[in-house]
Design goal:
This is Universal bacterial protein YeaZ. The protein is α/β, with parallel strands linked by helices. It is built from eight helices and ten strands. It folds into two domains: 131 residues, ATPase, nucleotide binding domain (Nucleotidyltransferase, domain 5, 2-Layer Sandwich), CATH 3.30.420; 77 residues, Nucleotidyltransferase, domain 5. It is 37% helix and 29% strand.
Length: 230
Amino acid sequence: MKILAIDSSSKTATVALVDEKGIIGEYSINYLRHSVILMPMIDELLKKCEVPINQITHVAVSEGPGSFTGLRIGAATAKGLAHALNIPIVGVSSLLALAYNVSEFEGLICPVIDALNENVYGMLIRGGNFEVLIDAGVYSLEEITELVSNYSDKVLFVGDGVYSYKDKLQEMIRGKALFAKDKDNMARAASIGELAIQKIKKGEVISYFDFKPMYIRKSAAEIRLSGEGS
């Protein structure tokens, strides 16, 4: 089993090769023009790891939430490769992948992706056994505060929402809020790939035809067109 993992749901474009033994290789670049660099990154990764593309058995990709454009680019890339190679896709939550970056933490883990206007895409996970306590959704900072206040544990925030709202979260959740290191706040395709292995073992794969990103909410353009924001 060799999994090509892709995540372009944030500013970071990241690709990785993983198997049951661990990470074979990984490239990450903080560059917003994902449509330009994603395929060259994949090509270079395969060459450096000396893995022929026909040895890839699954394509794992971030299913969201995150940047609407980034998710579409990642999905299109994954679907195109899976179609060409006739292999299945494994969709992995970008929030779960962020939490996996700090999975050794045994308290509460709250991955947060900035959804603008003091809102975040977030969920709540118990470190250690990786139990999902609160499902993924769009939450205001006040709602996040209320959710974590139901638990006595300290909570580790991870993701780009840390950079946007660290000070406010620290003020609102006094004494309980911890924040991940910069390296762990970045999306990592290796985390997507390692979580994908767990899903593959459970038979949780999908065809390239059926895979769709999980946006959670409408894009700003869709809201404007529907008149919901007026």
